[in-house]
Write a structure and sequence with these properties.
Blueprint lengths: L10 H11 L7 H7 L4 E5 L2 E4 L4 E3 L3 H4 L8 H13 L12 H13 L4 E7 L2 H18 L7 E5 L8 H6 L3 H4 L9 E4 L4 H4 L6 H19 L4 E6 L15 H12 L2 E5 L25 E4 L11 E6 H10 L13 H16 L2 H18 L7 E7 L2 E9 L4 E2 L6 H11 L5 E3 L2 E4 L7 H24 L4
Parallel strand pairs: 5-6, 5-7, 7-8, 8-9
Antiparallel strand pairs: 1-2, 2-3, 4-10, 9-10, 11-12, 12-13, 12-15, 14-15
Helix pairs in contact: 4-13, 5-13, 6-12, 10-11, 14-16, 15-16
Bound molecules: pyridoxal-5'-phosphate.
Amino acid sequence: MKPNDLPQFDTAALRAKDAAHHLHPFTDTKSLNAAGSRVIVRGEGVRIWDSEGNEIIDGMSGLWCVNLGYGRQDLVDAATHQMQTLPFYNAFFKTTTAPATELAALLPQVAPPGFNHVFFTNSGSEGNDTIIRLVRRYWDLMGQPQRKTIISRHNAYHGSTLGGASLGGMSGMHEQGDLPLPGITHIDQPYQLQHGKPGESAHDFGLRAASWLEAKILEVGADKVAAFIGEPVQGAGGVIIPPASYWPEIQRICDKYGLLLISDEVICGFGRLGHWFGCQHPHINSKPDLITFAKGVTSGYLPLGGVLVGDRVAKVLIEQGGDFNHGFTYSGHPTCCAVAIANVSALRNEGVVERVATDTAPYLKAQFATLADHPLVGDVDSLGMVAGLVLYKDNASRTLFDADLGVGYLCRDHCFKNGVVMRAVEERMIIAPPLVMTHAEIDEMIRRIRRSLDDTLAGLRAQGLV
Ligand SMILES: *Cc1c(COP(=O)(O)O)cnc(C)c1O
């Protein structure tokens, strides 16, 4: 689409209003206001446009969620139809709506075996808060109320509510608001660049990283630990892909001590790794008891999240639990559920998930790997439709830039300027593009990323920093 086909927006006026009134998430408002927000006005396929007419390939699927890409009329129609029929009704007092019920019955068809129940929320954070309550309720009902502690990982992301941020392992979040809440503790992440030993194989590192779970269980007391939570691949932490040895060993330890295993699939769910859920990818291959989902369930067209509750927990909760005193006004919101049904149906009917596994992800992997010859780049890796690389000052000796330099942010700004969204996390540059990307679009995205790396390098050279 040409810029002059776009509706006209008064960018300066929008920026001024934004600066005057809008507190953005995870943002230093003062420095944002000095620069001004970019106003995104349109999306089609894998591309977005800003109010100044710039076309940008969305390498991050919005915020890891627009799995089907932008401009899907079927999702719009599902929402329109439901809003015309019944925009909202609740599920609290012996009522339900057709979309909530149909979606609850549809999700077990795509979930791993043994998942037959779902609890709806509005977001991934609320899903994880729900899980904290479900886990503790489960152990109460099991007659082991002392099993309260949930073990998570440093640099995990599980959301931004008090519960979600506590489960998460982001130190910057914990510092603000006296987190984590009691009963939540963390082990180190399986990130070899940070925690590996010289000469250690990825396989050995994976086993060693998993052993930190067992050490923590023994430290807390095996009878006091309720659950372990992890993302199959850490997303916001920087696309940390664990070694293949990691998850099976985590599974073994959870089984050994009877812990509930929680797979936070808010990013990895709904095809992101080429399987319906990340735990099903052979590289992960875990058997969780609870699954958190959100983001891709609606391709981000409307907010929806929830918990897939495995039979082990559901049976106890239903048979013995009585009232579960938890829920949200919009749990099972019919319009959001209608969009989710359309989204899941499209992912299924169009074979998107299989195509990611057999075609799109392997192609992305091969093309992304070509960036490895760039002087700034090392540790190029991908799994499904997430990929990451490390920006090195000297990639031969694996020397990182001084963190204060913010090289990732420089690179991210070049990416935007060159028409591609890439995210910077410390030393890592990451992507999670829409699952429907064509080969030609992947080629174009990689060209724009390479140009941005070149521009970053040129800028650093001009300043004498490399
Ligand atoms: C985004 C995310 C969440 C939080 O979801 P919200 O919808 O933002 O509350 C939780 N877990 C993971 C893995 C996420 O990526």
